[in-house]
Amino acid sequence: MGRRTTGQGQLFYAFTLDEVVPASHLVGKIDTVLDLSWVHQELAPFYSSTGRPSIDPELMLRMLILGYIFAIRSERQICAEVQVNLAYRWFCRLSIEDEIPNHSVFSRARHERFRESDVLRGVFERIVGASIAAGLVGGDAFSVDASLIKADVNKRKRSSAEAAPRWQAVDQASRAVRECIAVLDAASAERAADGGGNGRRDGETRKPPGSHAKGSTPHSTMTPIISSTIASGSSSTPKARAPAFARRPQSPRRCWDASWLASG
After folding, report:
1. 74 exposed, middle or buried (CB, 10 Å; 0-12, 13-18, 19+)?
2. Residue 249: which domain range?
């Protein structure tokens, strides 16, 4: 029976990553068609000629591409995977001794240089263009990927679409809802009397704010007047013009929905 001999750890290794990574590996197939040589020239205006050396932008883009292809969720995890995976190192042009960039450089590059230069869009468009040139994209059909999300609803409390809605009576609604319905009804009646449209009679122009005719009631006092009218049931209160929001066209169904929701 064979047994592996374990002695002192080997100090030197003689091999190349080209021999370790097989040609049939996915990263090898991608590398044959991926060309990022244009990145340095595109990002040159966004790098300073002084200061400490920066991280190679092509290296960061290759690492991000690995994250998208192999569904690696974070830059921190990408750095950890490239550290131990020889195929990833080969794809990123890293030797066995090269240091892996810190994960923080990705967020800074994404929010600064990559965003200002729009280099990620350039990578995407060039990849799509290369796919079209290779005949992989024809444009005759497209596919959509979707996910079914379970709705957070109560299955026991539902009604069919054909069932008539159960509207609540107006007199059983709250006071605020009754006042709102009264304002909308008054606005609808006034619009009908004015002939519809923008709520103004023919030839009438909008008056500047704060200017009211003698004997008229400002808009700010409209709500107390309507409230007192509804409470007393009398019609002796001088008629005032409804506020601007009440002159908007409102459907009766929306009013009934408001009363039903307010009643709980």
Report:
1. exposed
2. 170-199+218-263
